[in-house]
Amino acid sequence: MTTVNYSIPNINCKHCVMTIKNELSELPGVQKVEGDPETKTIEVVFDAPASEDSIKSLLKEINYPVKQEK
Predict the structure, then answer these.
(1) 16: which residues sit within 8 A by CB, 6+ positions away?
(2) Which helix H or strand E contains 54, and what residues bound it?
(3) What is the pLDDT along the chain (70 residues), one digit of tens a residue?
């Protein structure tokens, strides 16, 4: 099982977090999604067949792209 944390600047409220949770939960392999609108972060726990690429791709598709590290 893998746990990743992402910074998502487009998160503005609990509704945003719920949208992300609902969408990511439909990806096969995603076990748990938690989010915090105040810190604009989410935590995703997943196994294969889910991957960081598939998670990031879906987040971008639903207009919650992951903040790129510099």
Answers:
(1) 10, 35, 37, 64
(2) helix 52-61
(3) 999 999 999 999 999 999 999 999 999 999 999 999 999 999 999 999 999 999 999 999 999 999 976 5
Residue recorded with tokens 């076990």: 31
Q: Across-strand partners of 19?
A: none
- So what CATH class is 2-61? alpha beta
Hey, where are the domains in the chain?
2-61
Q: Name residues whose C-beta falls within 8 Å of residue 29's C-beta, 6 or more positions apart in sequence.
A: 46, 47, 48, 49, 50, 51
Nearest CA to 59 out of 4, 2, 6 is that of 6
Residue closest to 22 by CA, chosen among 47, 40, 49, 42: 42
